[in-house]
Amino acid sequence: MTAPHRASLRLAGFVPFRLNRLAAEVSHHLSAIYRGRFALEIPEWRVMATVGQDHGCTAQYVADSTRMHKTRVSRAIAQLRARGLIARAASARDGREMQLRLTRAGRRLYAQLVPLVLARERGLMHGMSAAERRGLLRGLERLEEFLGLRDPH
Q1: CA 89, CA 25: separation in Å to the nearest integer?
Q2: Which of 56, 62, 77, 86 can pair with 101 through a Cys bridge, CB separation 3.0 to 4.6 Å?
Q3: In this structure, are residues 50 and 57 in contact, taking their beta carbons and an 8 Å threshold?
Q4: 31/36 Cα distance (integer angstroms)
Q5: CA-CA distance, 107 to 121, in Å (whole number)?
Q6: How far is Cα 36 from Cα 117, in angstroms, rounded to an integer?
Q7: Nearest-CA neighbor of 45 among 33, 57, 56?
């Protein structure tokens, strides 16, 4: 009688591990732009990017769309408010709900930063053919659909 075959895992080939490692490296690669030039940390950048693209939203929306813990979002908002880059105001729809908006200084920083990060994204994708880029984007969409991640826009 032979022993039952034991499943083994080669972590370096395990897709969830590879996605996580790749996401961390891409985030680090991108952070060189906003950390060095604009003194923003990753959570602060994510808040700025979310609020800036939506021209205002709630902290809960930021947490939901970025998948950051509420505590990290709150700390990032506090840092951005202290720097005068973001402001909070009561929502016209629900006075208990606080809307986040970029201040004038925040909009200026956002306008400087966005072209830089988009150029960095193009650089990351440059090593792939057009077909590979389309395939990557389709694959990401399928994974997001499977996991129930909806693009909030």
Answers
A1: 35
A2: 56
A3: yes
A4: 8
A5: 21
A6: 13
A7: 33
* 11's tokens: 């972590």
Residue recorded with tokens 């129930």: 148
Q: Which residue carries 């003194």 as its tokens?
A: 39
- How far is CA 122 from its chain centroid? 16
Question: 3-class SS at 71?
Answer: helix
Which two tokens mark 33?
């732009």
Query: pLDDT tens string for the chain (153 positions)?
Result: 566 678 889 999 999 999 999 999 999 999 998 998 999 999 999 999 999 997 889 999 999 999 999 999 999 999 999 999 999 987 777 667 789 999 999 999 999 999 999 999 999 999 999 999 999 999 999 999 999 887 655
Residue 122 burial by Cβ neighbours in a 10 Å radius (0-12, 13-18, 19+) = exposed
What tokens were used for 144?
């997001």
Q: Minimal CA–CA distance to 105: which of 58, 40, 12, 149?
A: 40
User: Which phi and psi (to 5°) does residue 103 adopt?
Assistant: -75, 180
Helices (H), 39-103: 42-54, 59-66, 70-82
Are 98 and 57 contacting, i.e. CB atoms less than 8 angstroms apart?
no
DSSP one-letter code for 117: H
